[in-house]
Amino acid sequence: MKKSTLYIGMAMLMSTAFAHASDPTESATVTITGNVSGSNPGASCGVYPSLNSININQMGNDIVEQGSEPDVMGLVTLRVANPDDLSGCNAEIAAGHIALKLHGQADDAQGTSLANTERRSPASGVAIGLFNYDTKEIIAINDTVLDIDKDSNSVKLGLELVKLAGQNMTDGNVKGSLTIDIIRL
Fold this sequence. Notes:
The protein is built from 2 helices and 9 strands, in the order αβββαββββββ. By secondary structure, the protein is of the alpha+beta class.
C-alpha cells in the first residue's frame, strides 16, 4: 500500500512539474500581412488571374518537346489593375513602368519550364510549359519579363505540358505553383 501511494504521489508531482514547466515557454506564431502604398499610383497595382487553377490533361503522344511550339494551350489571362485607382495603374502601364515576371520551381532539364512538383503519383519527364498565348513564344520561368498589353492591361498566359529534353516520360499526375510578380521598370 505504501508503494502504490508513493507511485501515485510521484506521478502527480511529475505531471504537475511538467504542466508548470511548459506554461511559460509556449510560443505562438503571428502572420502579418499588409499593403504599403505611397504617392506613386502604380505602386498599388495588383494582378488578377482569370483562373486560380487550371487542369491540363494530355495524352503522352500529344505532349510537345520542350522548346517546341505549343499545340493545345490552356489560357489564363493575367489582368493588372487597381480597382481603387484605375487611372493611376493604367498610366503606369501606358508609360511602360511596370511589367510581369513569373516565378516558380524550374524544371531540371533546360530550366525554362515550371517543374512538376506532384509528390504522390508524379509523371516523370514532363513539366508545365509557359507561353505567350497569342505569339506562342516560350516564357522562361524566373527569367522572361512580360510586357503588359496597353489596350487590355493584361497578359495572356498559355500553359501546356511539355516533354523534358533528354528525359523519358512516364504516366502520372502533374502539379505546379506559379507566382506572378509585378516588377518596376
